[in-house]
Amino acid sequence: xxxxxxxxxxxxxxxxxxxxxxxxxxxxxxxxxxxxxxxxxxxxxxxxxxxxxxxxxxxxxxxxxxxxxxxxxxxxxxxxxxxxxxxxxxxxxxxxxxxxxx
Length: 102
Prior knowledge:
Layout: E1 2-5, E2 8-11, H1 26-35, H2 42-56, H3 63-67, H4 74-80, H5 85-93
Antiparallel strand pairs: 1-2
Helix pairs in contact: 1-5, 2-5
């Protein structure tokens, strides 16, 4: 399916996760963040960049792995992305929902 985000038509699945990372942009990330009532800071983008890199390298993402990454600890991860940090941050990063998320 297609969804218009930040004025661009992007491919998404039924849950609203982008299916083509090449369509991602910081503007799209900001729009997706607004849907979760978040205002993105440079710190958020550091975490999003880490998630995208892990996804490109086919590393399965879990909250524990993100917390051990050295990029962000678990406490800060929850502070940056409350109410399901891995699920929300993955959506904003333009990557599929991790298998570890329900």
